[in-house]
Amino acid sequence: MPTYADLLFSKEANDTLADYIRDRIRDRVADPEVAELQCPNDHAYATKRSLFETNYYEAFNEDHVELVDVRSNPGGRRVPLPGAGGVVVGVVGSCWSAGCG
Asked: In the chain, which residue ranges form alpha helices assigned H by DSSP?
């Protein structure tokens, strides 16, 4: 990161890279709605951990993976999975498990 120190001090430089990162997320996630939910828009790039090269974004292209948007579904309300008879669980307190209640 020292090579790109202006990213932390120049909004223009950070916005340029953030646009590039959002485009790469859109390239990796097949569903446009899911891709947009994954695109960081509420913080400057490099202020939170980047998830590239871990296959994190590609995982959302798998049939058995579904994104739970806790911003539009706060408090960990459980959302039925269409056709699967199960549930997608958001945050319940500080718990991220289907066993939490």
From this structure: 6-9, 11-28, 32-38, 56-59
